[in-house]
Amino acid sequence: MSDDVLVRVEGVSKKFCKSLKRSLLYGAADVWTELSGGGKHDELREGEFWAVKDISFELKRGECLGLIGHNGAGKSTLLKMLNGLIKPDQGRIEMRGRIG
After folding, report:
1. What is the average pLDDT across 21-42?
2. What's the CA dihedral at 22, 23, 29, 30 to 10 degrees?
3. pTM of the model
4. Reading across the β-sheet that carries 48-60, which strands appear in turn?
5. Is the pLDDT of residue 43 over 90?
């Protein structure tokens, strides 16, 4: 990452499941797959949906970013990923500093 770029988001996506029971089952399966050295499960399974899909941007020193959109557009999910509260299912996030 160059010295000017403070935040780089490349191809970030996050999926969730509507059913808590199914979400727990998928989560356990994903943890087992990750521990056994398998690849990530990138396609949607039954009951899943993309909250954020393929987001990319860079923020340089002195720049600001505003997130606008309808309810359910993924604004809070993206901020949670930037703050490190949840991990993206795809893509990567590089940061220097912190998000306010």
Report:
1. 85
2. 150
3. 0.81
4. 48-60, 5-17, 90-95
5. no
